[in-house]
Amino acid sequence: MAFPVLQFNSFLIKLVFLLFSALFAAGQSECNVKLGSTLSAGDTSLWSSPSGEFAFGFMPLQRSDNEDLFLLSIWFYKIPEQTIVWSKNEYPVPEGSKFQLTNEGKLILYDPQGKEIWTVNNGGSTCAAMLNSGNFVLINGDSKYIWESFREPTDTILPGQILGMDGNLNSRQSEANYTKGKFQLSLQKDGNLVLYTIFLPTGDESSAYWATGTVSKNADFQLIFDEAGYVYLKQGNKNIRNITKNDMGSPQEFYYMARIDYDGVFRHYNHPRKNYAVGTEGCKSSWSIIQNTPEDMCGAIVGDLGSGACGYNSYCVNSNGKPQCFCTDGYSFVDSFDKNKGCKPNFQLPSCQQNGWELNMDSIEFKELNNTDWPLTDYERQTGSQVDESRCKEFCLQDCFCAAAIYNGNTCWKKKFPLSNGRQSKDLNRIALIKVPKGHMTNTCPKNKDQSTLVIIVSVLLGSSVFLNFLLLFTILISFFFIYHKKMLNLQFDSTTFGVRRYTYKELKEATGGFKQQLGRGAFGTVYKGVTPSIPKRYIAVKMLNKVEPEGEKEFATEVNAIGRTHHKNLVNLLGYCHEGENRLLVYECMSNGSLASLLFGISRPHWNKRVQIICGIARGLTYLHEECSTQIIHCDVKPQNILLDDFLTPKISDFGLAKLLLAEQSQAALTNIRGTVGYFAPEWFRKASITVKVDVYSFGVMLLEIICCKSSVEFAMGEEEEALIDWAYDCYSKKKLNKMVENDEEARNDMKNVERLVMVVIWCIQEDPSIRPSMKRITQMIEGVAEIPVPPRPSVFSSS
Ligand SMILES: *[C@@H]1O[C@H](CO)[C@@H](O)[C@H](O)[C@H]1NC(C)=O
Ligand SMILES: *[C@@H]1O[C@H](CO)[C@@H](O)[C@H](O)[C@H]1NC(C)=O
Ligand SMILES: *[C@@H]1O[C@H](CO)[C@@H](O)[C@H](O)[C@H]1NC(C)=O
């Protein structure tokens, strides 16, 4: 019978095949890159690991000029943020460059003309492999690795990777520039694990700012990143020092990496393995920091030589392990895109020459900074009980060499240029007195080297006539606020210095063509379109704040400073301000895509996935305001009109920090009569309860609901049924009729599981009792799918009304 014979034959063939592959597997099982394979810069070719988690190839660099450059790299391939973990960073190459595993078994990088740029000069390999660990290896006939990317790390190490003695990691220049930067992690021959600043371009070690101090004669040290995700120092086979001390989740759930970042901090990160994405490309989870080494970079990096963490003339503030850099009033950033490069004075340096401003006592003023110190560069000191702050100022005033003075209660130090290692921290009991020429601050305009992004126009607020009513109502509310009460928001701001520029009224009048083109009007004032006089031109949004009780210059400056200190992808950037007499103006970057309100309630509904990404961005921005910036900021007015969108529809929160500025005197009592009308306000606004960050959580919940349904809560309330959007939402949820909420929205209806999750988040946010509402951080985790969402209780306010 033919049939069984045939079967037998195929069985034989399989057997022989299996046998063969088993034989081969011993030698070549890992090979996934054959001799002769080539990658080209500019096309999509890459070599990926069997799991698809890592890829080897050419990564395009984000650059300002026109030439496209590519970096030969290994990166996390499965996660949205394709993070580079290894690169040939000395050789960014143009399009058309090639990387080949030659038939002779060499790895060669060619430029577009075919010239060899870099060769792994081993030869004799039989294949190469991109391994699941993230290691790229050349394999020889004996299955030995003759070259490994793990043995030539750049700035990152991964689980399974070992840094041997004499091994280094070098930071990059900046977030997007992978060229060798100014920090190095080094496991020295003597066993000491040290973080160094280095001199560029030679790369020689300059000064150490952190070390384990583990020195030993018979040193046999390794820095281990084990498969479980821990980083530790091993001597012989003993773990002698844990670098990772914090909980980091299980390796089944997270990816890990450790990297010496461009700010000099060696950070251990994790990232959820699964993108529990809402929608297919929905919410992008991101890397979280598990451990910062050192924990306070600002305080750690104090050497006799060098500028400190933030460059010369700047000062550094530790914000959750991240050194943030600031210039004092009268100085501006050398490079406004890289704030670690220090600050330059906006005036001529004192030189003790005739006619110098520093010789005319009347033209000098001192800017004060509490809790701030430049510990080095002093050249003279006065001590004694008779030395007080005004004496200290006087010493510096009378000395034309003096750039600044530091005063600590009984000692006064005179400082010379350039100031270095500046630091501000609550535990520094010193006042910095910075000498600047009066009125000089605004005369020099920091050169704006912003290149490509021609930012276009904000169009804030104002969609429908319904909204106008709402606005009117809100304005009345605000007036009530001012007529009555005392301070209520207890936010602490501790400094009066600026990372933002001060403009004159005249400048802004010119920039806006006499406040001609109105972009919108909001609770706090009117917004005008403007354009900076600098070349290339840059569009700005100038907000003229409503006139209220004249407030002290100092207080205004303090608030503006707090706003100016915030830097987050999801916050609108404050560029500057103006305060002259009654005129108080704020200058923001301009956003090209208008407000979320106009997008959501406009003609064409934005895609579901886009909406989900917007939700994630707003949640992260609010988390930053509440928990991550150096002083907590309660927004108090979260609503779609205050979310602006950039070219890429990245949401940016605007108007934050203004509540403190303008609602300082407000009345809760005035609100009690208008209960329920103003959709975004948490119930505690209408009671004698204290206002906390949870009011923003409530407003976020209402807005989240609007984003899900693309319905405005204000409009909804004006409808026939007199039913609030949120009551309706809870009904839909509890009666399992969620698809009513996304009628006519095909994309959302195909993603009902996530609609439900988001609605559950909404219900958590709008709980009447603020203490039951989760924190923004928790909410962000819920949205990202990192945290479970428990079944929410019924928000009681609605059942009772
Ligand atoms: C990165 O910075 C270096 C030094 O500042 C500069 O020479 C190089 O052009 C930059 N690279 C890119 C890709 O922008
Ligand atoms: C490192 O941490 C582990 C727990 O994660 C602990 O068992 C061990 O004793 C620590 N080692 C040192 C040297 O601190
Ligand atoms: C510095 O602190 C003192 C006392 O704590 C306070 O009176 C003063 O206003 C502060 N100065 C600034 C500039 O914030």
TrEMBL record:
Q: Name all Bulb-type lectin domain ranges.
A: 30-151
Which PANTHER family does this chain map to? G-TYPE LECTIN S-RECEPTOR-LIKE SERINE/THREONINE-PROTEIN KINASE SD2-5, RECEPTOR-LIKE SERINE_THREONINE-PROTEIN KINASE
Per the database entry, which stretches of residues form a coiled coil? Answer: none
**Stored PROSITE patterns:** BULB_LECTIN (PS50927), PROTEIN_KINASE_ATP (PS00107), PROTEIN_KINASE_DOM (PS50011), PROTEIN_KINASE_ST (PS00108)
User: What lineage does the source organism belong to?
Assistant: Eukaryota, Viridiplantae, Streptophyta, Embryophyta, Tracheophyta
- Family classification: Belongs to the protein kinase superfamily. Ser/Thr protein kinase family.
Its protein name is Receptor-like serine/threonine-protein kinase
One family name in Pfam for this protein: PK_Tyr_Ser-Thr
Identify the GO cellular component terms for this protein: membrane
Catalytic activity annotation: L-threonyl-[protein] + ATP = O-phospho-L-threonyl-[protein] + ADP + H(+); L-seryl-[protein] + ATP = O-phospho-L-seryl-[protein] + ADP + H(+)
Q: Does the keyword Cell inner membrane apply?
A: no
Provide the species name.
Olea europaea subsp. europaea
The superkingdom of the source organism is Eukaryota
Q: Keywords in UniProt for this one?
A: ATP-binding, Disulfide bond, EGF-like domain, Glycoprotein, Kinase, Lectin, Membrane, Nucleotide-binding, Receptor, Serine/threonine-protein kinase, Signal, Transferase, Transmembrane, Transmembrane helix
